[in-house]
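Hello,

Following up on my earlier ticket. Below are the three sequence lines again, exactly as submitted.
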Amino acid sequence: MTAKTPEERIADLGLTLPPPARAVANYVPWVITGNLVMTSGNLPWRDGKLAYVGKIGREISGEDGYKSCQLSCVNAVAQIKQAVGELSKVKRIVRLEGVLGVDDAFKEHPKCLDGASDLINNAFGREGPPRPHDLHQPGDAARLHVARGPVRGD
Amino acid sequence: MTAKTPEERIADLGLTLPPPARAVANYVPWVITGNLVMTSGNLPWRDGKLAYVGKIGREISGEDGYKSCQLSCVNAVAQIKQAVGELSKVKRIVRLEGVLGVDDAFKEHPKCLDGASDLINNAFGREGPPRPHDLHQPGDAARLHVARGPVRGD
Amino acid sequence: MTAKTPEERIADLGLTLPPPARAVANYVPWVITGNLVMTSGNLPWRDGKLAYVGKIGREISGEDGYKSCQLSCVNAVAQIKQAVGELSKVKRIVRLEGVLGVDDAFKEHPKCLDGASDLINNAFGREGPPRPHDLHQPGDAARLHVARGPVRGD
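Thanks for your patience. The regenerated structure is below:
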C-alpha cells in the first residue's frame, strides 16, 4: 500500500483545494526563496465569497471560528500547491501565523487557530508547525492565515 | 541603454532614500542571515520627524495612509541599501508586513499598504512581495512596515 | 580565561532557563529549517503559571511589562536551547517579534520589549535582533514573543 498524498488526505477530510484566491491588492500570492515558500495572507474564501464574516464570539461562534481558520488554511495550502506543483514536495510547514477578528471577551482564539493546525497535521503528518502568534484585532477584520513550508530537500 | 538601478527608479518617483532611521529602542535595524536581509519595523520618517501621525480614517485620510506606507517603505529600502550596498544586489523582496493604525470603521487598509507594494514593484520590478497580513490595531500606533529581500544569488 | 556561555550569562542575570513550556494548542514549540530555528509564541511562564496577567499601563506597570517581556524571552531561549542543545551553537538571533497587551493610552511598549532585546543582547552578545513590530492589541491578551536564530555555521 502506498502512503496517501497530502492532496488525498485533504480530500478524505471532505475538503477541496480551490483555485488560489486572487490577491485583494497589489501583491503576489507566493514567492519561493531558497527552500522556503512564502505565502500571502489567506481569507476563508469559498466559491469566490468569504464564507465567514464578522467577529468570532459575537457574530460567529467559536466552532465556526475553527472552521474559518480551517478554510483559510485550505486556501493557503492551495497557494503552496500552486507554488510547488505537488504537495508531496513540501517537507514540512515551518510557520503558521493567524490573525483573528474576535470579540474582546472571547479567549478561545488559540482553539480556533487549531482549525488550521489540525488541517496541516492531517495533510502533512503529525507535527504541527510553530505558531508565533494568535493575534486578535479590532474592527471587522477577516480571519487571515499564513502557512509556508520548505520544499523537500531543505 | 542600460536598465535603471532601483535607486534611479526611486528617484524617478520623486522620492529620496534617507539615511536609515535610528532604532527607537535596543535593537539593530537589519541583519543578514543566509541570503536574507531581515529588517526592523519602519515608520514614516522624513527629516527626522514622523510625517504622518494619527489613525487612518480619522486624523489622516486614506490617501495619506497610502503615502505613509510608501514613506515607511522608503525607510525600509534605505535599511536594505545600508545592508547590501547597492540595491541592484537585491534579487527580490520576499515578504512585506504592515501594521496600520486605523479607525475601526476604516476598511481600506489593504489599499493603503499598496503604497509600500507599489514602491517595491516600481523599484525592483513588477512582482510585488507576498503580504502575510495587513494588521490594524488600536491606539495611536504608528504605521510600520517590514520589507526584506534575498541578496542576489539566492 | 574562557568566554562565558550564553547559559552562564543568563544565570549571571539571576535568571533560570525553565523546561520549555507546553504548547497551549495543537502545535510544536520549534522547528529547524535550514540554518534557522523557528520558535512558537512564548508567554511569561514561571513555574507553570503566567507571572504577569493583564494590560500593561492598566493592571500592570510599564516596569513589569519590561520584566514580562524578559521572562517571555527566557521561555523562548529555553525553546531554542531544546532545539540546538547548547546555546553557544546559536550564531545570532535574527528576529524578535513582540505582541503586547497594553492600555490604549500606553505608549512605552517599545521600552517594554527591550526586556527581551536586553536579555538577548546580554546572553548572545551586543547586537540585538531586528524587531519588525511591537504590536499591541485589545483584550486581555498575554504578552507573547518570538525569537529565533540560525545555528552556528549559517
